[in-house]
Design brief:
The protein is of the alpha+beta class. The chain is built from seven helices and ten strands. A hairpin with a 4-residue loop joins β1 and β2. It is globular, with a radius of gyration of 19 Å. The two termini are about 35 Å apart. It comes from Pseudallescheria apiosperma (Scedosporium apiospermum). GO terms for molecular function: ATP binding; protein kinase activity. It holds the Pfam family Pkinase.
C-alpha cells in the first residue's frame, strides 16, 4: 500500500485535529487533507500487536468499495504519528451515531446500505477473515449515504483447516468465544434490522417479504452466508 503524499517530515502536533479518543487508540485528521491517522499507544507489547494485526488484515483485504480505504502507515521518522495506520476520512462518523439521518433516507438507499454491509462481509469471508465485531458502529457513513466496513483489530484469520490466528494468538481470553463467520452473519442480521426496515409502514413491509426472510435466516439458519444474504437482497430488489 502506497503511503499518501503528506510531508511527514514537517508534520507537527498542531497539524492534527482530534476526531475520536478511545481506550486503545486515538484518531486524528491530518489538517487540510482527507486522511485520518489511527494512533495506538505502544507502551505495552499487546498494544503493538493490535496495531500490527489490524495493518496485516487491511493489507490482505486490499481495496473493496464497501470497506474503509486503508492508505498505509506513517513512517518511523514521523514522531507525532508514532507509526499510525492511515485511512480515508469520513466526517459523518460511524453509522450508529448517524442512525436518525439514516432512517430519514429513502427506502431504496437503505436497501443499498444493506447490500453494502452484506457485500463487505462476504468479501472478507472469501479471504477467510472473520471480523469478530459486526455491529452498526463498525460501519462508517459516507457523505453520499453509502457505508463502509471498518475496525479489524479484533478480527481473526482462518487457514481452512480449522486453525486460526489473531492479535491475541490462538485464543480470545478477553472476548470469550472464538469469532466465526456465522457469528458475523448473526451480527449482520442485527445491522440489517437497525438500518430501518422495521420502521417502515406495513404496506412497504408487505412488499419486502424477502427482506423479512433474510433477517430471520441471519438469526436462525446455520450456514446462511454473507454472500447468500447479499444475493437475496439483490434478488428481492
Amino acid at each position: 500500500m502506497d503511503t499518501p503524499s503528506v510531508n511527514f517530515a514537517a508534520l507537527r502536533k498542531t497539524d492534527l485535529e482530534r476526531v475520536h479518543l478511545g481506550g486503545s487508540s486515538k484518531i486524528f485528521r491530518i489538517r487540510n487533507t482527507n486522511i485520518v491517522a489511527k494512533i495506538s499507544p505502544t507502551t505495552f507489547p499487546s498494544q503493538y500487536r493490535w496495531r500490527e494485526w489490524e495493518k496485516e488484515m487491511y493489507d490482505r483485504i486490499g481495496t473493496h468499495p464497501h470497506i474503509l480505504r486503508y492508505l498505509g502507515q506513517s513512517p518511523p521518522s514521523c514522531r507525532p504519528l508514532n507509526r499510525a495506520l492511515l485511512f480515508e476520512y469520513h466526517p459523518k462518523g460511524n453509522a450508529a451515531s448517524c442512525i436518525d439521518e439514516i432512517l430519514s433516507l429513502p427506502p431504496r438507499q437503505r436497501r443499498r446500505q444493506q447490500y453494502q454491509a452484506a457485500s463487505a462481509l462476504a468479501y472478507i469471508h472469501s479471504l477467510d477473515i472473520v471480523h469478530g465485531d459486526v455491529a452498526l458502529n463498525s460501519f462508517l457513513l459516507r457523505e453520499n449515504g453509502d457505508i463502509v466496513l471498518c475496525g479489524f483489530s479484533r478480527s481473526c484469520l482462518f487457514d481452512g483447516r480449522g486453525n486460526f490466528s489473531s492479535a491475541c494468538g490462538p485464543s480470545f481470553p478477553a472476548f470469550g468465544d472464538v469469532p466465526s463467520k456465522q457469528g458475523d452473519v448473526r451480527g449482520l442480521g442485527i445491522v440489517l434490522r437497525q438500518l430501518g426496515y422495521e420502521e417502515l409502514p406495513s404496506e412497504v413491509l408487505d412488499a419486502l417479504d424477502m427482506d423479512l426472510r433474510v433477517l430471520q435466516e441471519c438469526w436462525d439458519e446455520y450456514g446462511y452466508t454473507a454472500a447468500k444474504v447479499a444475493k437475496d437482497l439483490v434478488s428481492s430488489s
